[in-house]
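Q: I'm writing a short explainer about 3-hydroxybutyrate dehydrogenase for a general audience and would like to include a description of its predicted shape. Could you first generate the structure from this sequence?
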Amino acid sequence: MFANLPGKVALITGSTSGIGLSVAKKLASQGVHIGLNGFAKPEEVTAIRKEIESQFKVKTFYHGADLKEGTQVKSMVQETSKALGSVDILVNNAGIQYIETAVNFPEQKFNDIIAINLTAAFLTTKYALPQMLDKNWGRIINIASVHGLVASVNKCAYVAAKHGIVGLTKATALEVAKTGVTINAVCPGWVMTKLIETQIQQRADQYKISFEEAQIKLLEEKQPSVTPVSTDQLGDLITFLCSNSASQIKGSAYTMDGGWTAQ
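A: Of course. Here's the predicted structure. Afterward I'll give you a sentence or two in plain language.
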């Protein structure tokens, strides 16, 4: 356990499933109180909170903010602070995807992706950062993607947003470089989440092959290790970035991509 983390408060967007939920559990295992956000049924949220509270003996809070709405984002930060204490750790994880050529890309879809994947991260930072500066300690980790560093076809909105996240990370990290607040990005490749599992199954159905064969075909296109990143591995990296050992890591974009961006 990292000695500096017990009793800290983390707000993690998109944390009712996938990467965000894994990060929530990893931080909770370090004694961090957890602010949850994401789309889920009330009974699912209750189950997640009970699991984290009973297993890790920490407090939790849930806010169902629609991250496209700036007033709801502000409320989420404020209400989390009221319930758990001022935010020490912010993990901007929420994101959506849509695949289409630029010519045929729906304008509203483009705007939604920018709003959730980029603008929401700016707003959470805007509202949580003053709390961190007041204590001269804080951690902001923005979940970008390899698509924050390189591009793929038919993903113009996602690639634009993720490149923006890396830029936001660098700019804000420089603004607070002389303080005890660090701001960094994590850029994963293919991560085994329900979203990716759905894409793999669609390929399996399309080509009439097994799920395992479809997974290999998908990974072979980009990820030299031909092995997906696990949500646990990402959670471990993010937990490290929250530790005092990472206090001089500022404005970095960490890849965890099985060699994708080394090509």
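A: For your explainer, you could say: The first strand starts at residue 9 and ends at 12.
Q: Perfect, that's easy to follow.
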